[in-house]
Amino acid sequence: MTAEATRLDEARQGQVRWKKWGPYLSERQWGTVREDYSDDGNAWDYFSHDQARSRAYRWGEDGLAGISDDKQRLCFALALWNGKDPILKERLFGLTNSEGNHGEDVKEYYFYLDSTPTHSYMKYLYKYPQAAYPYADLVRTNRQRSRGEPEYELLDTGVFDEDRYFDVFVEYAKAGADDILVEITAANRGPEPADLHLLPTLWFRNEWASWIARPTEKPSLRQIEGPAGTTAVAAAHPTLGSYYLYCDADIPLLFVENETNNDRLFPEYGSANRYVKDGIDRYVVHGRRDAVNPDRSGTKVAAHYRLTVGSGQSATVRLRLRDQPVDGPGADAEGDGFPFGRAFAGTWAARRREADEFYSSVIPSSLDEDAARVMRQALAGMLWSKQFYNYDLDRWLEERGSDPFHPERRASPRNEHWHHMYNGDVISMPDKWEYPWYAAWDLAFHVLALGLVDVDFAKQQLGLMLGERYLHPNGQIPAYEWNFGDVNPPVHAWATIFTYHLEKQQKGAGDIKWLRKSFQKLLLNFTWWVNRKDRSGRNVFEGGFLGLDNIGVFDRSAPLPTGGYLEQADGTAWMALFADNMLEIASELALTDDDYSDMVLKFLEHDAWITSSLVQVGGSGGMWDEDDGFFYDVLRLPNGEVRRLKIRSMVGLLPLCAATPFEPQLFEKYPEIRERFQWFIESRPELTASFHDPTKVGAGGRRLFSVLDERRLRRVLGIMLDESEFLGPYGIRSLSRRHAEHPYVLQVGGREYRVDYLPGESDSGMFGGNSNWRGPVWTPVNMLILRALVNYHSYYGDTFTIECPTGSGRRLNLYQVAEEIARRLVRTFLRDGQGRRPVYGGTRKFQEDPHWRDLVLFYEYFHGDDGSGIGASHQTGWTGVVARIMHMFATTTAQQVLELGQNATITETESPWGRSLGAP
After folding, report:
1. For residue 529, is it left (φ>0), alpha (ψ between -120 and 50) or beta?
2. What percent of the chain has pLDDT over 90?
3. Is 5 helix (H, G, I), strand (E, B) or coil?
4. Following DSSP, what letter does each residue of 791-837 receive, concatenated?
């Protein structure tokens, strides 16, 4: 075992709390629903970036390159000032949803370079301009641009011209679970010496304010005497206990209270304390010496380093945060009792080496240096995207006067039916600036990559959403904080059985106890879907937009302008996949527990009914179009008219993903299940006429549950693998490229509704924000397709081949098809023959500059034709699944999938796939 694997094992067994401290700060707490106490629910305007430096948060904290304990009581982060900015750089700046021409958008350059799963070693990079940060220019110019124009980025402002900026590296290393070493290095990339104020900041989250419904005892920070040549702070918290911050220099400490500056923001109330949250900003930027506490105590403190860094030079600041004090002023500067002695340097060397050793055990050796770099940064981004998410819905409703049990309550703009929820956990976020709140279906994809490095955390994340503090009493899984009652695609079971098999591969045995517990809660969610989202009881499901923002001609979450309703091909396909996964889980449990054999039969029948409904419900008005060989949404109008909405989109590809093979052991153990299901199928011949016959034995004695029989599978694949339709150079597009020349147009009530192929940013404001499903490549749904193709191969084997690309004359088996799509996805991030990464498009700085070109960002989605990144720039949360894709094909072969099915993995030799990533 590597040293990091040992730490994971110690954490798992409860011996050492290695995960107590981590990157659990948000990167944007302002503009979130949790902090919104307005009547109209406009969270972006109620708590703005401009207010954030002066206004105490209620539910969480944000910071630059920050860490905190796992309940976010004590926080540490970096603040910077270049002598020109109008404010301290304490947090990342970005545009609100109404300011950006393509929705909310962070306007900073920062990178998650490394992290181990216990956060024993972490590295972060922030690029800080030496000129004044162009806040007003970014807001003004983006507001002036239309949806048809690109976003105005920070590089476009000229603030990085002549390389006049600092690369600020922040590194953390743990000498123990409560002993954290910090090094901050500022490298001047510019042509001249430049000044920098560097302010490492320690503070307590405010839980004591008078306006909080049930405040707690106030903690404290105070300066103490440390060893000679250091500056020290003692922190005392009523539940966290005592901590000590040591700074490797004799420098000034600036103390204030983490409390709101009412005099600036709410003058009608007045500030109860003179030394308020923005006092450090006023001291440093505006020279207000009276803004910080001369008594050197408070609840927020910054160490004030003033550096002048020469051109091409760097300067390093060292700090240490620990739960035990070190020896006093007489401590030997080289001894173990000195916070920055020999042991300090030794710990850094050990943790960096151990991080390399750990990732050498995770990243397949067949990946070349550049591919390994991409995979490691993807996983680092996943680990840095953890955040303590704190939201007590009952208390929040009470504090805003919307207590659902109070007779004179005010109406809440959202979430009043979720008053049971109490969230107070470290959760994997989609993006800690753009989406600093969990989303249920995002999280399901997160765990696929997280499971590679920390399967315990992956399982715990899936379990959270099914716990009583999250899952609604009616069985609904919460969607996201803007509307917990919205409907996310039901992929939780898919991620659960995937994670189970991943752990089984890693350890030789799966966690049956965890799988059993998950299954019981997933039953509640499955029942909620069956009871709430099947309008007519015909196994045809709806669910609003189901994650695919603006993919259709209508807003599928709103009442239709035509009246009537939609039968959604993706909604029903999601449920077919859900039933597949529940059947797979029940089958796994039944192999060791006879009590689950009846559940196997239950889901065999559920699966059959749902699967058949996709193809045959409604006759000529069904979702399968025999002429086109594709699935479409069906519009049912109030007058009884039925229209098939012939948009070739991801909606019609999702039925392909509902394909699950079953190993022969189940029916060998329970022949009565085979017999009873055989009777069920034979007594309903209309079912097998509409989907693949699940009683037919394939390769390895397996059976297959699939929406598509072989004939329909070939037809859908023929469209999906056509480069003039879905198969793009960087993965499967969310909309067929044929709609570039043939847009879908629908006339209703004298108004035109249309869907055009939009490979980049959206020109539709249907859902707000910057998400576009009308042509770009989305990594998570590509992952669903890849998994399905591998499943099909395990059943059909080498006897099933198809042209890939369509019309090329090159025939591949379905595992090889999956490999080809995976290559295209991964190449988005890799240097090509000219040394350029498609993800960065035409941005020369990222393509050519040696200080930028190996820094990889994992965007929300990618241009359907050129692969450039679009949307949220740090959506490592789900685009990070590319790490799992790289690992999956570098550690399996087509033959092993045939032989071993779900448990296929290479242990001694590796697939040559990684070495062929650059192949045409």
Report:
1. alpha
2. 77
3. helix
4. HHHHHHGGG-EEESSTTS--EEEHHHHHHHHHHHHHHTTS--TTS--
State how far the Cα of 640 lies from the Cα of 645, in Å rounded to an integer.
Answer: 16
Residue 346 has pLDDT above 80, yes or no: yes
What would the DSSP string read from start to end of 453-516? H-HHHHHHHHHHHHSTTTS-TTSPPP--TT-TTS-----HHHHHHHHHHHHHHHHSS--HHHHH
Q: Using an 8 Å Cβ cutoff, are 589 and 515 in contact?
A: yes
Q: Say yes or no to pLDDT of 734 above 70.
A: yes
Q: Could you check whether the bond before residue 805 is cis, i.e. omega within 30 degrees of 0?
A: yes
CB 67 within 8 A of CB 75: yes
Q: Compute the distance between CA of residue 752 and CA of residue 873 in angstroms, rounded to an integer.
A: 33
Tens of pLDDT, residue by residue over 382-412, are 999 999 999 999 999 999 999 988 888 899 9
Output the CA torsion 907→909→913→915 (10° steps): 130
Between CA 486 and CA 544 the distance in angstroms is 8
Determine phi and psi for 479, rounding to 5 degrees.
-85, -70
> pLDDT, tens digit, for every residue of 534-560?
777 777 888 777 888 889 888 887 888
Q: Say whether pLDDT at 527 is over 50.
A: yes
> Greatest CA separation found in the chain?
89
Q: pLDDT for 819-872, tens place per residue?
A: 999 999 999 999 999 999 999 999 999 999 999 999 999 999 999 999 999 999
Pair 803, 810: CB distance under 8 Å: yes
Q: Which residues contact 617 (CB under 8 A, 6 or more apart)?
A: 538, 539, 540, 567, 623
Dihedral, CA atoms, 860, 863, 869, 873, nearest 10 degrees?
Answer: -30
Tokens of 908: 């001694």
Instruction: Tell me the CA distances in angstroms from 913 to 777, 798, 840, one per residue in order.
Output: 22, 18, 24
Cβ atoms 459, 509 nearer than 8 A = no
Q: Is the separation of the CB atoms in 866 and 881 below 8 Å?
A: no
pLDDT in the model for residue 908: 42
Least confident of 262-271, 836-845, 893-902: 893-902
Please classify residue 138 by burial: count the beta carbons closer than 10 Å to its beta carbon, then call 0-12 exposed, 13-18 middle and 19+ buried.
buried
Q: Which helix (H) or strand (E) holds 705?
A: strand 703-706
The β-bridge partners of 435 are 431
At residue 785's C-alpha, the angle toward residues 781 and 791, to 5°, is: 145
